[in-house]
Structure to design on (317 residues):
């Protein structure tokens, strides 16, 4: 698992934590392997041992005519019970794809609304945009940690994260657009393209999640984070020379190659996010876990947008 948002969900949905019979079916309350439960939860003791009379199987029947009396058997009520529709996933409080789509749409709608407000504020007052960017990224970092490690799912905190992330992205995108005209539209379309292609490949079964794929993605993600951290520290202390920054491989800038790899790693992480949402729907996860799915999608897709935006800026330089 490369997205920490889904770690808690994966633990709750693991097959090893679901008690099953030797045949693989879910157990019923009171089931013990190798024993047979007495029908109607009755004890195996005799009527003499219980001190009560043995139940008469014919006590609810009118023996004179051979059918049940209306006081014991209401045929109309029974027919209405059988005619009633069966409980669906919504009635049972189980997560469905509709829940995931609706929560994800709401989260991204809030994020885009906050981004538009931050964009307009940055155009009006650039210093305000800088403040929104700093506060937004700091708030999104804190709220992401809270949502990841909290034992309780809090939709309000997830929407608050969307607001902070949207404010930061709106201000940053406005600054990048003023520096590189047209770059935001290119990054937005490229992000939608990567997400659409990844979803199409996953839905068609061309790309599947597997333990080997998950390990490869995790190693690549950790390696990228370590590289970015070391590069930031070296740059802060002035140990990165101009030759290192402008290094190329067969005419391509190294920074651009790293950016492309980062986008590919983000797409791999997105495939695992889709797979975890699928597993949650198939295993009957609680409906409120749809908010966790929405939050996980936001984290991955926003990261991919930032990587693409940075990649396009490097290519223009």
């Amino acid at each position: 698992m490369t997205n920490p948002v889904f770690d808690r969900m994966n633990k709750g949905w693991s097959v090893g934590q679901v008690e099953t019979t030797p045949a693989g079916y879910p157990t019923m309350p009171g089931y013990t392997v190798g024993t047979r439960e007495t029908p109607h939860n009755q004890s195996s003791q005799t009527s003499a041992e219980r001190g009560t009379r043995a139940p008469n199987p014919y006590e609810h029947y009118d023996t004179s005519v051979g059918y049940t009396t209306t006081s014991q058997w209401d045929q109309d009520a029974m027919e209405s019970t059988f005619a009633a529709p069966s409980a669906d996933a919504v009635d049972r409080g189980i997560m469905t794809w509709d829940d995931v789509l609706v929560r994800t749409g709401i989260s991204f709608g809030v994020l885009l609304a906050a981004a538009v407000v931050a964009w307009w504020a940055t155009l009006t007052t650039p210093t305000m945009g800088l403040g929104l960017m700093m506060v937004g990224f700091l708030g999104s970092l804190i709220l992401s940690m809270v949502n990841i490690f909290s034992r309780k799912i809090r939709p309000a905190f997830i929407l608050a994260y969307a607001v902070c992330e949207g404010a930061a992205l709106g201000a940053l995108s406005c600054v990048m657009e003023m520096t590189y005209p047209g770059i935001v539209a290119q990054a937005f379309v490229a992000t939608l393209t990567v997400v659409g292609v990844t979803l199409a490949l996953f839905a068609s079964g061309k790309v599947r999640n597997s333990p080997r794929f998950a390990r490869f993605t995790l190693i690549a993600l950790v390696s990228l984070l370590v590289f970015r951290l070391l590069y930031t520290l070296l740059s802060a202390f002035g140990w990165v020379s101009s030759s290192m920054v402008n290094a190329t491989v067969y005419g391509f800038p190294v920074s651009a190659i790293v950016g492309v790899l980062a986008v590919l790693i983000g797409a791999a992480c997105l495939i695992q996010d889709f797979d975890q949402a699928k597993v949650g729907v198939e295993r009957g996860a609680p409906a409120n876990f749809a908010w966790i799915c929405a939050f996980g999608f936001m984290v991955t897709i926003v990261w991919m947008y930032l990587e693409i935006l940075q990649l396009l800026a490097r290519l223009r330089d």
Summary: Confidence is low (pLDDT under 50) at residues 14-18, 37-50, 58-63, 65-72. The longest strand covers residues 61-62.
